[in-house]
Amino acid sequence: MDASPQLAVTLDEHALVRGLWRGIDVFRCLALVYAAWSVWHRHDEVAQLTGAIVILAVLAAWTVVQTVRPARTIPMYAAELAIGCAAILATRLVDHEWVITGGAKTVPSIWPSAAVVGFAVLLGWRGGLVAASLVGLCSFIEVQEPTGNTVTNSILVFLVGGCIGYCVDLARASHAALARSMRLDAARAERDRLARTVHDGVLQTLAFIHRRASELGGEATRLGVMAAEQERILRALVSATDLAAVDRPADDGPTDLRSLLGHVEDARVQVVAPGQPVLVERSAAVELVAAIEAALDNVRRHAGPDARAWVLLDDDGSNVNVTIRDSGHGLPAGRLERAAAEGRLGVSTSIVGRLADLGGAASVQSGPSGGTTVRLTLPRHAKEHR
Amino acid sequence: MTPDDDRRPRADEHRHADPALREDASGRPPQPVTVVVADDHPMWRDAVARDLTDAGFEVVATAEDGRSAVARTRATRPDVLVLDLELPGLRGPEVCAALTAAEVPTRVLILSASGEHADVLEAVKAGALGYLVKSARREEFLDAVRATSAGEPVFTPGLAGLVLGEFRRVKATSQQEATERPIPELTDRETEILTYVATGMGYKEIAAALFLSHRTVQNHVQNILGKLQMHNRVELVRFALERGIDPATHEPRGAAEPR
C-alpha cells in the first residue's frame, strides 16, 4: 500500500466522510467491549488468560488513544491494522489448539474491522480490500485449518472494506462535482459583474476614442485602431460565458460559439443561432468572434443610424458559416480597396486576415437587397470534429 | 435575445383585399376567419380576442389552459388557433402535437412572451405554422393571423435559425447512426431562402433578390416546414396516444369548410 501523505490531507472534505470517521471511533469502542466480553464469557477455555488480558489491554490502550485524539492518517491506521493483525495471530499463543480448531473467536474478535473501514475511508475501495485481505490472511494463518466461521468472517470483512470504500469514492466524486459547479457559479457571477462595469465604462470609452480618432484622421487614426483592437479583446475577455472555461486553460477545448456572442446583441443586432451548441476550438472561436465584432463595428459606422444587423450561425457539419447582414446603405463599389489603400485596415485585417489565419475564408459583398453581407467560413478540421 | 426585433411579417407583406374575410371560390358570400384564442392570462386573452373581433375576425372560443385549448379547437375547428407557448396543463408544443395527431385542420399561430427558444422549435415541429412575439404591434399581430389563416408560414429570423439548425442536427445524427426513416433534407434553394429569412429578409425582399415570385418564396418556406413536420408525425401520434388524446378521429378535412 503506498502511503502518500497528500491523501491524508485531503480527507475530511465531506459530511459523509466525517460521519464515517465518527462511526469508526464508536465502533472501535464497542468492538473492544465485545472482544472483552467474549474472552470473559469463555475464560475457562482460555489457556493463557493473562496473555489474553495483555492483548486486550493493548487494544484498549490504542482505542483510548484514537478516541481521545483521533488521527485519521495512513500511518496511524497502518499501526492500528498491524495491532489488529498481531492480536489475531497472538490468539494462537493464548488459546488451546482444540479451542481454535473448534471455531472459537479470536481475542480481538471484530476489533480489526475498524482499521479495515478506516483504510476504506482513507484510500477508497482498493484500500478497503487490501486491509481486509490482510485481516483475512491473518485469521487464516491463526486457525491453520480454516473453519466455516473463518471463511464467512473473511468474506464479511471483504464486503465491508470494499463497499464502504466504494461509497466513499462516490461521495468524494459527487462532492468534487458539487464544489466545481459552485465555483463555476461564483466565477460566472463575478464575471457578469465585471462585464457590466467594464462594458459600461471602459469599452464605451475605448469605442469613443476609436470613433473620435478616425474622425480626426492623421496620427490619431493609429491610436483609434489600437483602441478598437483593445476594445475587441477586452470585450471577448469579459463576455466569455462558457462555464467550463473557468476550469481549463484559456486556449483549450471546444467552446460553444453561441455563448461567446451574447454581448454583440442589442436593439439593432440580433444573433440567430441553432438550438444546439456550435462547438469550435476555443482559440478559433475567440478569433471568429473578433471578426464578427469587426464586421458589426463596420455596420455601426457605415450602414447608417437606422440599419439593423443579423448574425446567423450555421454549422453544416463541414463548415461553420457565419453570415452578418445589415439593412443599411450597402457598399459603393471599390470602397474596401480605397479604405485599405488609405491605411484603414478594419475590414481587411480584422475580418479577412483573421479568417485566413484560421484556414477559413471571408467575403464582403453588397447584400441581395441592399445593405452589406459578410460571410465567414471556418472549416472544421478532423481534430475539431471528433 | 431582443424580442422586439422580431417583428415579422412586415405590415406590407400580407395585405389582402379584405383581410378578415376568407375567399370563397364557390361564389357564396365570404365568411369571416374563425379564431380560437388560448392564453392563461385573462387580460391578454380578452385584449387579443377584442382586437380580432374589431378587425372582423370571428372569435369562436377562448381557452385558459392546454387541455381546453385542445378540446375547444377540436370542437369548433376554427381556421386559426392563437396559442400561447406557456399554458398550464399541456404546454404549447404539446397542444400542437395533440391537434396534429388528431388531424385537426386548424392552423396554429404561436404567441410567445420571450424570444426564440427550444419550445418554439418544438411547437413548429409539432405542426404550428407561425410564431410571433407578444411585443409585436397590433397590426403585425393581425397580419400574422391573416397570413396563418391563408396557410402562409409566419417566420422570425430567430425561428428560421432554429429550423435551419434542426435540419443540420437531424442530418448529423443520421450520419452517425443509420436510421431507417427517411431523413428530410433541404434543397440548396430552400437552404438559401432559410438563410435569407434568418438574416432578417422579408419574403418580398427574398423574392426580389432571387427573381422569384412572392408566392414561390412562400411555397418554399411552406415546404421547409412540411419536411420538418412530416419527420415528426410518427412521434406525434405516439405522444398523443401516451397522453390519452385519441388521434383516431379521421374526419375528412372538408368538415372544416364553411358551415
Automatic annotation (TrEMBL), chain A:
<dbReference type="InterPro" id="IPR036890">
    <property type="entry name" value="HATPase_C_sf"/>
</dbReference>
<keyword id="KW-0418">Kinase</keyword>
<feature type="transmembrane region" description="Helical">
    <location>
        <begin position="49"/>
        <end position="68"/>
    </location>
</feature>
<dbReference type="InterPro" id="IPR045975">
    <property type="entry name" value="DUF5931"/>
</dbReference>
<feature type="domain" description="DUF5931">
    <location>
        <begin position="18"/>
        <end position="179"/>
    </location>
</feature>
<keyword id="KW-0902">Two-component regulatory system</keyword>
<feature type="domain" description="Histidine kinase/HSP90-like ATPase">
    <location>
        <begin position="287"/>
        <end position="380"/>
    </location>
</feature>
<keyword id="KW-1133">Transmembrane helix</keyword>
<feature type="compositionally biased region" description="Polar residues">
    <location>
        <begin position="363"/>
        <end position="375"/>
    </location>
</feature>
<keyword id="KW-0812">Transmembrane</keyword>
<protein>
    <submittedName>
        <fullName>Histidine kinase</fullName>
    </submittedName>
</protein>
<keyword id="KW-0808">Transferase</keyword>
<dbReference type="Pfam" id="PF02518">
    <property type="entry name" value="HATPase_c"/>
</dbReference>
<dbReference type="GO" id="GO:0016301">
    <property type="term" value="F:kinase activity"/>
</dbReference>
<keyword id="KW-0472">Membrane</keyword>
<feature type="transmembrane region" description="Helical">
    <location>
        <begin position="114"/>
        <end position="135"/>
    </location>
</feature>
<feature type="region of interest" description="Disordered">
    <location>
        <begin position="362"/>
        <end position="386"/>
    </location>
</feature>
<dbReference type="Pfam" id="PF19354">
    <property type="entry name" value="DUF5931"/>
</dbReference>
<dbReference type="InterPro" id="IPR050482">
    <property type="entry name" value="Sensor_HK_TwoCompSys"/>
</dbReference>
<dbReference type="GO" id="GO:0000160">
    <property type="term" value="P:phosphorelay signal transduction system"/>
</dbReference>
<dbReference type="InterPro" id="IPR003594">
    <property type="entry name" value="HATPase_dom"/>
</dbReference>
<feature type="transmembrane region" description="Helical">
    <location>
        <begin position="74"/>
        <end position="94"/>
    </location>
</feature>
From TrEMBL, chain B:
<feature type="domain" description="HTH luxR-type">
    <location>
        <begin position="179"/>
        <end position="244"/>
    </location>
</feature>
<feature type="modified residue" description="4-aspartylphosphate">
    <location>
        <position position="84"/>
    </location>
</feature>
<dbReference type="GO" id="GO:0006355">
    <property type="term" value="P:regulation of DNA-templated transcription"/>
</dbReference>
<keyword id="KW-0597">Phosphoprotein</keyword>
<dbReference type="Pfam" id="PF00072">
    <property type="entry name" value="Response_reg"/>
</dbReference>
<dbReference type="InterPro" id="IPR011006">
    <property type="entry name" value="CheY-like_superfamily"/>
</dbReference>
<protein>
    <submittedName>
        <fullName>Response regulator receiver protein</fullName>
    </submittedName>
</protein>
<feature type="region of interest" description="Disordered">
    <location>
        <begin position="1"/>
        <end position="32"/>
    </location>
</feature>
<dbReference type="InterPro" id="IPR016032">
    <property type="entry name" value="Sig_transdc_resp-reg_C-effctor"/>
</dbReference>
<dbReference type="InterPro" id="IPR001789">
    <property type="entry name" value="Sig_transdc_resp-reg_receiver"/>
</dbReference>
<feature type="compositionally biased region" description="Basic and acidic residues">
    <location>
        <begin position="1"/>
        <end position="26"/>
    </location>
</feature>
<dbReference type="InterPro" id="IPR000792">
    <property type="entry name" value="Tscrpt_reg_LuxR_C"/>
</dbReference>
<dbReference type="InterPro" id="IPR039420">
    <property type="entry name" value="WalR-like"/>
</dbReference>
<dbReference type="GO" id="GO:0000160">
    <property type="term" value="P:phosphorelay signal transduction system"/>
</dbReference>
<feature type="domain" description="Response regulatory">
    <location>
        <begin position="34"/>
        <end position="149"/>
    </location>
</feature>
<dbReference type="InterPro" id="IPR058245">
    <property type="entry name" value="NreC/VraR/RcsB-like_REC"/>
</dbReference>
<dbReference type="GO" id="GO:0003677">
    <property type="term" value="F:DNA binding"/>
</dbReference>
<keyword id="KW-0238">DNA-binding</keyword>
<dbReference type="Pfam" id="PF00196">
    <property type="entry name" value="GerE"/>
</dbReference>
